[in-house]
């Protein structure tokens, strides 16, 4: 295993992947790679890859695994990601998981751990239907678990928060169906490689974060944690 930390979260919508990714980025000093963010940035910067992506999107086509792979490969070379990366929303298929192994392998690295955040269905319903979003920044709050200081106002800007139009039980059920189809094979893939660690994320953000730190300590990354 290399010196840097590379990990991914696997879990259903509402399990807390984004929250825990932010905590890791802040406390561990690693980068965070989101496919959506990388696509938008490449387009805005008008890189050769970004122009290619822009053309594909304009034609209403899907972004191929090859382009996603190139994006990750390109972004891993940035100084901000020198200590490691948490992959946000990637991989989502076995093909992508194998591609990630190849990308890291050519750097003499490997995925440190795949963390499954396991959450009960009732808890997922509570989390998803109570979510509040600050659209300009993407900051997420929750009316019960992490409420804003002022009701329905962003803590930083004071701008209004909104509820996601897709944050309904019906939409959650559809997303869970998709997750079971794509996520479960990835869990098995990493389990077979001895990389999977499952955490009961139903017990709240702080408990989940403490278990993540314990997992990293066991993997000898504890000295870098704050």
Structural notes for this entry:
- By secondary structure, the chain is α/β, with parallel strands linked by helices.
- The chain has a domain of 135 residues: P-loop containing nucleotide triphosphate hydrolases (Rossmann fold, 3-Layer(aba) Sandwich).
- It is 46% helix and 15% strand.
- The chain has a 5-stranded parallel beta sheet, sandwiched between helices. Strands 5-6 form a two-stranded antiparallel sheet.
- This is Adenylate kinase.
- Keywords: Kinase, Nucleotide-binding, Transferase.
- One of its GO terms (molecular function) is ATP binding.
Distance between the termini: 22 Å
Structural class: alpha/beta
- Do you know the CATH architecture of the domain at 5-119 and 201-220? 3-Layer(aba) Sandwich
Sequence of secondary-structure elements: EHEHHHEHEHEEHEH
Indicate the radius of gyration in whole angstroms: 18 Å
CATH superfamily of the domain at 5-119 and 201-220: P-loop containing nucleotide triphosphate hydrolases
Number of helices: 8
Uncertain spans:
none
- Helical residues, percent: 40-55%
Report the top-level CATH class of the domain at 5-119 and 201-220.
Alpha Beta
Fraction in beta strands: 15-25%
Shape: globular
Q: Quote the CATH topology of the domain at 5-119 and 201-220.
A: Rossmann fold
Provide the spatial order of strands within the biggest beta sheet.
2-3-1-4-7
Overall pLDDT metric: 90
What's the total count of β strands? 7
Characterize the largest beta sheet: strand count, sense, and whether it forms a barrel: 5 strands, parallel
